[in-house]
Amino acid sequence: MKKLVVAIGLMTLAGTALAAGKPCEELKGEIAAKLDAKGVSGYSLEIVDKGAAADGKVVGSCEGGTKEIVYKRG
After folding, report:
1. What is the reported pLDDT for 55?
2. Mean of the pLDDT values across residues 31-47?
3. Helix, strand, or coil here: 52?
4. Domain boundaries, given as residue ranges, for the chain
5. Cα separations in angstroms, 31 against 8, 15, 26, 51, 55
6. Which of 2, 9, 39, 40 could hold 35 in an S-S bridge, CB 3.0 to 4.6 Å?
């Protein structure tokens, strides 16, 4: 029973953290580190308002879903 209570508590904390969202600069740095580790070069990551990604691929959402991080090659 104690394990169940702890598990529910951890799930609640994780859900709250995800709902709040990460700061955009922090998430952008994490995405850049993953791309660099895979040997990807010649790209840019841009923080834009949600829905404003005209050209490029949305690779992340931050600040409570109000902004997106867009990946562009070249």
Report:
1. 86
2. 95
3. coil
4. 21-73
5. 29, 21, 9, 19, 18
6. 40
